[in-house]
Amino acid sequence: MSIDLTFIGQIVVFLTLVYLMKKHLFGPLSELMQARAQKIADGLAAADAGLEAKAATEAEIAAQLEDARGKAAEIVASAEKRANEINEEAVNRARSEAEGIVDAAREEVQAELGRARQALRDEVADIAILAAERVVEAELDASRHSKLIDGIVSNGFGNA
Amino acid sequence: MAEQSHDGGIAGHLHYWTLKFDESNPFMQIHLDTMLVTIVVAAGMFGFALWLKGRLVEGTPSGAQNFMESVVGFVEDTVRDNFPVHNPLVAPLAFTIFVFIALVNTIDVLPAFLLGHVAHLFGIEHFRPVPTNDLNLPAAMAISVFVLVLYYEFKLKPVHFCKELLMEPFTNLVPVFLKPIVMPINLILKVIEEIAKPLSLSFRLFGNMFAGEVIFLLIAFLLLSGGPVSMAAGFVVGLGWSMFHLFIGLLQAFIFMILTVVYLSIAHQPVEH
User: Fold this and answer.
1) pTM
2) CA B103 to CA A71: how far, in whole Å?
3) Enclosing domain of residue A93
4) Which of B40, B68, B90, B171 is 20 to 30 A from residue B189's alpha carbon, by CA?
5) CA of B76: which chain A residue's CA is closest?
6) Contact residues, chain B, for A1 at CB < 8 Å
7) Given an 8 Å threshold on Cβ–Cβ distance, is B140 in contact with A28?
8) Could you give the number of structural domains in chain A?
């Protein structure tokens, strides 16, 4: 139990060992562990950021969905309105067409009626002239009295 | 001497394998067993470091890397808890001290005479396997730490440290005219206080391990040399003491490490105004 040259030798061994351990064992391991801790921290931060981004995206999606729903409702409403307009237009057009048809028919009927009335009038005049001829064949000259008879017939049947 | 004449006794096993350069000067000798074992352990640690360095993985560690990472993490936590500032040297120093002392102390668990007998085969008369039983090793480590502490004291707060050497603890307690008189007393007390650090650091480790070895030898001499019952008892007691001593070795390694960190941490403490 004495201090001797071993002491010097031990200092050399100890300091050399400290240097070697720092360089080859503790340093690399410590760096590795720090790098890993950093990596884990980064990963956790990224995961948190991802969750936040997901939440933000979900909120955006919900907002866009709401927006789209509103727009769709608007479109449906405007389409319904347009359909009603078209419907009404069609109904109006049909109504006016129908009225046109009815008017034309009525006019035709009137024309036909006028024509029939004229024909009847002509025929009655002929019959009357014929009857008158037969009654007063000798005295009456068809050509001389036809105007007179036409006037009578026209007045007599005008109110018929 | 009585010890040497009693060659078969315990004292006979407390000699080192010594190489003497100068018979008249007790300093000029070297304990070859201490040097050999420490160099072998240090080389083993270095070899292990190189081996592990080549197969470090960045991902999930396993096996040796996992174990060493837990040791490194433990040392780093200890240093971080005690240290006010970051110093890249302290953690590797504490790690080396802890691992080296723990490994060297663990050699003590080997049966008391095993390595001695192996050495005898090579014609070496005395061989003491545990270098921490040799005051030279704890003293070398303690002095290295002490020099480091002094270096940081002078580097980081030279004025404050010199002032403390002269002014503490009595200067403020005495009248002004007595101050010059108490200064040398302060200096003496402070020097004793500072020298006590490496002394206690080295003797604590040396004493514990030396006592442990002596108890091993006592068990061996008192019990194993008797009859079968005594042999059996000796075996059981020796085994029990081995386990306890293993624990003490680890504990002493931890104490040496933590005190190193604490002394260096004191040197790094910022000056209080």
Assistant:
1) 0.73
2) 78
3) 5-116
4) B90
5) A30
6) 134-135, 210
7) no
8) 1
Contact B135 A26 (CB under 8 A): no
pLDDT at position B258 is 92
For residue A35, being part of any structural domain is answered with yes
Look over chain B and give the mean of its residue pLDDT values, rounded to a whole number: 84
Q: Which of A17, A23, A38, A39 would you mutate first to test chain B, the one with the most B CBs within 10 A?
A: A17
Examine residue A146 and state whether it is found in any structural domain, yes or no. Answer: no
- In degrees, to the nearest 5, what angle opens at C-alpha B195 toward C-alphas B256 and B34? 50
Residue type, B212: G
pLDDT at B131 over 60: yes
For residue B136, CA distances in Å to A2, A13, A21, B198, B259 come to 7, 12, 21, 12, 19
Residue of B125 and A76 predicted with greater confidence: A76
Please tell me which residue of chain A has the smallest CA distance to B31.
A6
Q: Is B220 exposed, middle or buried (0-12, 13-18, 19+ CB in 10 A)?
A: middle
The answer to the question of residue A105 being in a domain is yes
**pLDDT band at residue A158 using 50, 70 and 90 as cut-offs:** low
Averaged over A96-124, what is the pLDDT?
91
User: Which of the residues A1, A3, A8, A10 would you substitute to probe the B interface, choosing the one with the greatest number of B C-beta atoms within 10 Å?
Assistant: A10
Contact A5 B30 (CB under 8 A): yes
Q: Active-site residue numbers of B?
A: 200, 204, 208
Q: Which residue has the higher pLDDT, A90 or B234?
A: A90
